Amino acid sequence: VALGIPIYLSGQIGLGEDGKLVNGFEAQVRQTIENIRGVLGKSRMTLHDVVDVYAVLAVDMSNYDLFNHVYAEEFAANDVQTLPSRTCVSAPALPRGALVELKVVASLLS
């Protein structure tokens, strides 16, 4: 992976504009990615610039297939041809009762 100027986003969860978690796993994945899109935009970056994603699913991996579907769909909606590298693990619980948490590294090639 070629890196330029990196941006590290840690602990992104599916909080809506009201500061509360959105309901349901799929909605949380979509909101988390929307939140990441917003943070990246402040640095004039997009999902195209994401080079690595560390995903944590709450409790177990039973939502893994749904996560993969939504993840691929959200990136494809932004014309991302090649998905960034990714690690996906589970944890017994996440902050604020979240069902998914994403840590992202994005990089503008210099």
Plain-language structure description:
The protein is α+β, with helices and mostly antiparallel strands. The protein is 28% helix and 30% strand. It contains 2 helices and 4 strands; from the N terminus they run βαβαββ. The chain has helices at 25-42, 64-76; strands at residues 5-12, 50-58, 85-91, 100-108. A 4-stranded mixed β-sheet has the order 1-4-2-3. α1 runs parallel beside α2. The longest helix is centred in the N-terminal third of the chain and has 18 residues, at 25-42. The model has no long low-confidence stretch (mean pLDDT 91).
Summarize the structure.
By secondary structure, this protein is of the alpha+beta class. It is built from 2 helices and 4 strands; from the N terminus they run βαβαββ. 25% of the residues are buried.
List strands and helices in order, with pairings.
Elements: E1 5-12, H1 25-42, E2 50-58, H2 64-76, E3 85-91, E4 100-108
Parallel strand pairs: 2-3
Antiparallel strand pairs: 1-4, 2-4
Helix pairs in contact: 1-2
Largest sheet: 4 strands, mixed
Total number of β-strand segments? 4
Mean pLDDT: 91
Largest sheet, spatial ordering of strands: 1-4-2-3
Q: Strand percentage, roughly?
A: 25-35%
Taking the alpha carbons of the first and last residues, their distance comes to 13 Å
Helix-strand pattern:
EHEHEE
